[in-house]
Amino acid sequence: MRTTIIRATLTATAAATALMLAPAFPAAAASSAELTIAQLEAQGFDVKVNRIGSAPLDECDVTDVRNGREQKRFQRIGDDLIEVVFKRTISVSLDCSR
Length: 98
Known about the structure:
Elements: H1 2-21, H2 24-29, H3 33-42, E1 46-53, E2 61-77, E3 80-96
Parallel strand pairs: 1-3
Antiparallel strand pairs: 2-3
């Protein structure tokens, strides 16, 4: 059982490291705010949007993607405790002041 918890913890640590590095990519590669938000939602994130201005979403520019967070808990499967991610959130900042 201890080996399973250690393995799950190492996997979670690697995933958290990748999560911290990944958010910068969608903002740089996306052609629109809608696309960036859709990509993050497709990756399983609950996207929180912060915006300046009142232009329609299709006219907004992504200025920042940050605070990618995972909430985890231990779940018993048979005799083992496995750490599982049950919620992922991220913030997207938009400039809609055109």
